[in-house]
Amino acid sequence: MWRALRISFLLLVLVVVAAQAWIDRFSTTRWQRTVFVGAFPVSADASPVTADYLTHLDQGKIDEVSDFVEAEARRYGVDVDEPIELRLYPTLASAPPALNAGAGVLTRIVWSLRLRYYRHRMVAAASPRPQIALFLLYHDPALASSLPHSAGLQRGLTAVVHLFASRSQESQNRIVIAHELLHTFGATDKYDLATGLPKYPDGFADPRLSPLYPQQLAEIMAVKTPLSATDARMPDSLADERVGPATAREIGWVRR
Ligand SMILES: [Zn+2]
Asked: 98 Cβ partners below 8 Å, 6+ apart?
């Protein structure tokens, strides 16, 4: 009974929030004015390392992400001075609801509702209110050798991004943030989920390169740089990432 009530309540929240999200999504992929993106850092664990890292996190650590989006948008002829404004908000006290890797369909639905509700509360308390919310979950590298898969709500203008609370990882953190941000605009993954290798041609920054391998650059939704048909490496920074034509079409930079 209690569970049914809770789900009904979440469904009600979903209807309200989803309606707003549809309006936001329409306005965020027209690229005629600046889209406001909020980055909300939060600790994923109780580690003092993570807590200390978060006290030193500042806007300068994420600016490269908006610079990347701006430069790539310009390359595709997007005619707005500042396509996105990415702003770092103060660290949140509570983390977004977690989703277990092996979760079933119902669990996923409930999780997505809980995430929408969480987003609704966090964004309502933020000033100014962003149109897109990125929840940056920082993990102490000593406690997590690998990170949970980052996840977004395709039409919910929200992403939960798992990152390492470590200076040496900041450059790659920015790649992950940019990748998850583009998901919120409707971009799809362009790597093989089983192997992690970029898919040809859409996951290649330069699919017409001859010889095809090794590629010098990576496509942001494929993340890695293809070195051979069976090998790819994580680039050092966003400077080696590009938005490929397929991604540009998905997020509305190229109209067909
Ligand atoms: Zn992805």
From this structure: 111, 148
Using the mean position of ligand 1's atoms as its centre, give its distance from the Cα of residue 59 in Å: 23
183 CA → ligand 1 middle, Å:
7
* CB-based contact 138:161 (threshold 8 Å): no
Q: Which two tokens stand for residue 106?
A: 């119902």
CA 181 / ligand 1 centre spacing (Å): 9
Residue 56 shares a structural domain with residue 98:
yes
Helices 2-28 and 105-124: crossing angle in degrees, nearest 10, is: 60
Q: Report how far residue 145's alpha carbon sits from residue 164's, in angstroms, rounded to the nearest whole number.
A: 9
- Residues of the chain above pLDDT 90, percent: 71
- The Å distance, Cα 5 to ligand 1 centre, comes to 33
Its domain, for residue 251, covers 187-256
**36: closest CA among 181, 172, 170?**
181
pTM of the model: 0.90
Say if CB 37 and CB 130 are below 8 A apart: yes
Q: What angle do CA 187, 190, 192 make, to 5 degrees?
A: 140
Structurally, the chain folds into a number of domains equal to 2
Q: Are residues 214 and 154 part of one domain?
A: no
Residues 2-26 pLDDT 10s: 888 888 887 887 787 777 767 777 7
Residues 176 and 219 in one domain: no
- Give backbone dihedrals phi and psi of 185, rounded to 5 degrees, phi first: -90, 0
Pairwise CA distance, residues 187 & 28, whole Å: 13
Q: What confidence tens digit (pLDDT) does each residue in 40-67 have?
A: 999 999 999 999 999 999 999 999 999 9
Helix axes 170-184, 63-75, angle to 10 degrees: 50
